[in-house]
Amino acid sequence: MIERARGETVLLAVQDTTALNLSTHRHLALSRAGRGPRSATAPASQWLSEPEWQALWCHTHRSATPPAQPPSTRAAVRMIARLGGFLGRKHDGEPGMIVLWRGLQRLHAIATAWEIFTQARKVVGNA
Questions:
Q1: pLDDT at residue 56 above 70?
Q2: For residues 74 and 109, what is the distance between their CA atoms, to the nearest angstrom?
Q3: Which domain covers residue 60, as residue numbers?
Q4: pTM score, two decimals?
Q5: Residue 95 has pLDDT above 50, yes or no
Q6: CATH number assigned to the domain comprising residue 31
Q7: How much is the CA Rg of the chain, to the nearest whole Å?
Q8: Helix spans in the chain (H)
Q9: Neighbours of 60 (CB within 10 A)
Q10: CA-CA distance, 95 to 12, in Å (whole number)?
């Protein structure tokens, strides 16, 4: 019985480590994509799902309706960083991993609420 419990514990630890690695990879890739030469023209939809970029746009711009086209990757990275506490002053440089991590955590909660309220709006018929 003890061996089985240890095996399950190891399996859970491996799953947690894998999820953490994927999450860290996304943060690193997103921070690099926001700095790249194509970031001004590449759409944020390459990195974010539709509800994520729509929720991000509406939250940042205090608007109820998102634009038809997603923002650029650079603009989306800046918006996510601002959610994480990045101030974006003249000499602050590019956002780092910590503010992007914090911003993506907040974005996840905002996007989840966006999806719930969007579905509720369709059910009620006020869309």
A1: yes
A2: 21
A3: 2-124
A4: 0.72
A5: yes
A6: 1.10.740.10
A7: 18
A8: 2-33, 50-61, 73-83, 97-124
A9: 17
A10: 33
pLDDT of 21-30, one tens digit each? 445 556 566 6
Q: Tokens 């602050």 — which residue?
A: 92
Residue 19, pLDDT score: 47
CB-based burial label for 106 (10 Å; 0-12, 13-18, 19+): middle
Name residues whose C-beta falls within 8 Å of residue 110's C-beta, 6 or more positions apart in sequence.
Answer: 55, 56, 59, 83
Q: Which of 44, 92, 83 is nearest to 67 (CA)?
A: 44
Q: Which tens digits make up the pLDDT trace of 71-91? A: 998 899 999 999 999 998 989
Do 58 and 65 meet the contact criterion of CB atoms below 8 Å apart?
Answer: yes
- Please count the structural domains in the chain: 1
**Cα–Cα distance measured from residue 45 to residue 13, given in angstroms and rounded to the nearest whole number:** 32
- Cβ–Cβ under 8 Å, residues 25 and 94: no
